[in-house]
Amino acid sequence: MWNSVRRITGSLMSMKGVVKSIRFCLFGMAACSAFEAEAQNVNLTPQPKDIQVQEGMLTLPSSFEANVNQLGDSVIQEVDQFIEVLGASSGISVKTTGDAKALLQVRLNPEIKNSEGYVLRVTDSGILVEASCTDGFFYAFQTLKKMLPANVMAGVKDPKVTSYALPLVQITDEPRFGYRGFMLDVARHFFDVDEVKRVLDMMACYKMNKLHLHLSDDQGFRVEITKYPRLNTIGSIRDDSYSTDFGGSGKRIHTYKPYGPYYYTKEQIRELVAYAEKLHIDIIPEIDMPGHFGAAMAAYPEFSCEPDVRHPVISDESHTPTIPNVANPKTLQFAKDILSEIMDLFPYPYIHIGGDECDASHWERNEECMAFMKKMNFSHVRALQSYFTKEMADFVATRGYKLMAWNETITATGSDLNLIKSTGADIVCWTGAEAAAQKAYSLGLSNILAPQPTYYINRKQSADPTEPTGPGNGNETLEAVYNYAPANNVAADKLHYYKGVQACMWTEYISADKHLEYMAFPRLMAVAESGWSPASKKNFENFRQRMQQDTVLFHYRDYEYGRHYLKASQ
Ligand code: ACM
Questions:
Q1: How much of the chain exceeds pLDDT 90, in percent?
Q2: Residue 452 CA: which ligand 1 atom is closest?
Q3: Where are the alpha helices (DSSP H) in 171-265?
Q4: By alpha-carbon position, which residue is closest to atom 3 of ligand 1?
Q5: d(Cα 109, Cα 498) in Å, to the nearest integer?
Q6: How many Å separate Cα 96 from the centre of its chain?
Q7: Using one digit for the tens of pLDDT, what is the confidence trace for 17-74?
Q8: Is residue 498 lining ligand 1, measured as CB closer than 6 Å?
C-alpha cells in the first residue's frame, strides 16, 4: 500500500503515478506552473520540511477505524483528540482498534529523532502517521486537519461541506527551531481567559509552541499572589486607561475612569495552562523586574528605592517610576515569594524575569544601594541588576527552573557578565537583536530572536492613514515580518544557541480583542513559518496565497485579521 509513494529528494520524478517533490517558487513567481499550482492546493502553513504530492485524493468514509495497537496512553490521547475534533466538525466517526487493516495507522517510530517531528503518508488506500513523541503525533494530526476542509481545523460544523478528502502526500516534517513563540502583554491591557484561549487555538493551528505572558509591568500586575494581596487589590487597578478606539475613530482615547481590577486568579491560570498543554503550548510567565515593576512597587512601596512615596500604577505608556531596593533583603524575599507562587502555577520550567529598560538612577540616589554596591565591590551600578538577577536565578534553580530575560541583562553597560553567565539564562533578544544574540553565545547563553521593530507586531502594519493609532510608521508589514530571516548568517557551530523566534504584542494602545487579532493575524503566521520551515522554503507570494486561503479558517471562528494583503472570504 505504501510503496506507491517513495521519498525522492531534489527533483521532479515519477514512479507509479506522478509524484512531485515540492520545491516551489524559490527563484521567483513569474510563471505559475501546474507544479506550483498543485503545491498550493496542499494548503499547509508552516510549510513542511519535505512534502511530495501524488495526484488524486483520499475521500474519508463516514466512519473508519484507527489502529492504535501498542501505543501508550499519551499517544492514544492525541489520537482521541483528533477523532473528537474530526467527529465534531465533519460528523465522521472513527473507532480505535488494533486492526492492522484499519484506514488510519498510528505507529511509534523511534527513528524519528526530533520530538516534534513526524511522518505522514496519505495514499488512496489509507493514512499512516508516525512519530516518536506525543508532540510529533500532535503535529501530524494538526497537519491532517489542516489538509481537510477548513472547518475541521476550526473545529466547527459546516452543513455546506459534504465531502472530506485528503490530498495524497508523503510528508517528512520537523521544525527548524524548538521555540516558536508569541509574547502577549496582558499588563498594559488585560485580555480575559476566553481571548487568551482564542490566541492559543490560533497558535496551535500554525504549530507555535510557546506563549510568553507578560504578566506585570508599571501599568498593572495581573496574576493572583496569595502572600501579597495588595499586588491584586492595588497593583491591578489604575486611574485611567489609554488605548485606541478600534472599530470607531481609530484614534487614541482616554477613559478617565479606573481600569481594573484585572488579573488572572490562580484557578484561571491553571485553566489556561491545562488548555495550552492540550495544544502542546508551554506558557512562560514573565514578572518583569527590576525595571517595569512599578505596579508591584505601587502596592508595596516599602520594597522600593523610595519607600515613603506613594507610587502610582501608571496610566500611560511611560515606565519605571521606581525600582526595587535590591540592597534590602526583604525586597529580595518579596521577589522570591512571588516567583515561588508563579512556579506553583506554571509547570514549564522557565520563568521570564524581564530585566529590560531598568532605570538604575534610582539606585544611584539610594544610600542603602550605594553602600551595598561598595560592600559588594561592584564597579558599576548596573551590577546591582546582575546581582538581583543571579539571586533570582539561584532561587528558581532550587526547584529546577531556569530564567529567561530580555537582552539588556547582558547588553546594558556595566552588567556583571560573569554573574549573568553563571545563571545560564536564555536571552530574549529584542533591541539590537542579532548583536545581542552574538553576545549571548559568547557567554555560552542561548537566545530567542524577538527583533524590534520587525517582530513587534503591535506596530502599524501599513502606512495607510486610517490605520489605528499605535507605534510605528507602517513598516512592519506582513511581507517585512515574513521576510525577516532568523539566524540565516550564523555559523553552523553557533546555531545550537539559537533556540528560536518570538513575535511580541505590546498592548499600550490595544485594548479590544478584535484589535489584538487584527494586529496579530496573519503576521503571527509569518513568524510561525520562519520558526518551523526550512529557510530555503520561504516564499512570500506563496505564503500570501496560503493566507488568502486561510481567511476561510479565520471566518469560521470569527477572528479579526489584517486584510492588507488579503481579500475577505465569504
Ligand atoms: C521591551 O520591548 N522593552 C522588551
A1: 90
A2: 2
A3: 193-205, 230-233
A4: 356
A5: 27
A6: 32
A7: 333 333 222 222 333 333 444 454 699 999 999 999 999 999 999 999 999 999 999 9
A8: no
